[in-house]
């Protein structure tokens, strides 16, 4: 297929500048998004096992609930019943609760001991997985506009430009798409190899990137979409408001757990009940959220579907399960969520999305490298703008990864200082991120890349080493990885340590033995090149 050169140049310019203006933000979003594929497993790995009390048989749940609400005034307002073997059978918020991210919530867990007596203990919540998810949604940008996160809106704009970059990139590649798609031409220089790798990853994962770009725009600006629809609807509400009750209910009127299971089962075939969250039980608007999980279904939430019920009348008020009577709207909305979250293919699908997320981060990183190489000056000192962009690329990309890895590494050690560690996570991330960014500008991209990659390798390796220390020194009161999910997380960290170490070695070789006029050459090489060019 032949395309006029002027058209190709136009689309190449669009591709380049939309990619450069959004690449660093999208790198953070994709890297953190890859990790959120296993958000529940990360939070389980990061939570001390000692905080969890033993499960009880389902036949004892009603007795446990009655004992809990007799023991605690807070439990009378609401509590969570969990059916997960790795979680306490019942817990409630002593402080906080409700929707949204809160870093200082306090929980109380309850269970029966072997003698049948009520036991309870307090704990903080661990929000490591949620904070990584927040990084994925906002790229770490702090602030709000109204009730919306500023970072979400900025990433929404970035996703719009990102969509243009995808389309323009495909158009630029069309003339040579079949011929050069799988050609990784290492013999033609590093720049050509990076270009071929960038093109291959971009084309092979194009459907995934189109899905992510479209759904991010929808998620970021859905309130604006509804606002636009309100102009058409006028005073008529978009959704029928729920009729408010005037009846004051009491926790003593609660039904048995089996009755809730019987009410949910007919509309949740193929699902397993993960938890039941009761809230506002002593009010006119009580609620019960039943969390449902299923492997390989299109779920509205990242990991679950929900059925919302009235805990006293048993009326189903809303659910996120695809129902035939919903018509087209329900399946379309569910599909948008599921395609973004990658929950429609079970664990295998999550690993695929994890890999695609990391490749997406590579796509933006390699795009910046290609831009820098294209603007490099032969046999001369690089421009100040090019040096600054290189330092920014290294600082933001490696700094964001370092911030997450340092937070994970610090987890078990932070519990030696305090039970409330969520704010420490924020400190770990932002200190590591801005330190890496500053270091990149001070030392330059070439030297900073070597040091930061080595530091990343070391921090990743120290994560499983912490588990080994926990086994050797049990008096430290930190814990080791014992379940499959936790062991997998630490095994993956070893793999990342190896990859970062190899990357550091290659960056070092290129800095000291590569092309001396490259932006990635060590300063003494660049100075030597300039001196030679002056003599000539």
Task: Report what the structure shows.
This protein has helices spanning 5-36, 39-46, 61-71, 73-77, 128-138, 150-173, 177-180, 190-204, 206-233, 257-264, 329-341, 346-374, 384-414, 422-443, 445-472, 484-513, 523-535; strands at residues 79-82, 90-95, 106-112, 118-124, 144-145, 148-149, 272-279, 287-293, 305-309, 316-319. It is of the alpha+beta class and 536 residues long. Strand 1 (79-82) and strand 2 form a beta hairpin. The longest helix has 32 residues, at 5-36. The two termini are 46 Å apart.
Helix and strand content put the structural class at alpha+beta
Percentage beta strand: 5-15%
- Main pleated sheet: 8 strands, antiparallel
First CA to last CA: what distance?
46 Å
Radius of gyration, in angstroms, nearest whole number: 27 Å
Mean of residue pLDDT values = 85
The proportion of residues forming helix, as a percent range, comes to 55-70%
**What is the molecular shape?**
globular
Instruction: Give the count of helical stretches.
Output: 17
- According to DSSP, the number of beta strands is 10
Unreliable stretches, pLDDT < 50, 5 or more residues?
A: 528-536
Side by side, the strands of the main sheet go 4-3-2-1-7-8-9-10
Order of H and E elements: HHHHEEEEHEEHHHHHEEEEHHHHHHH
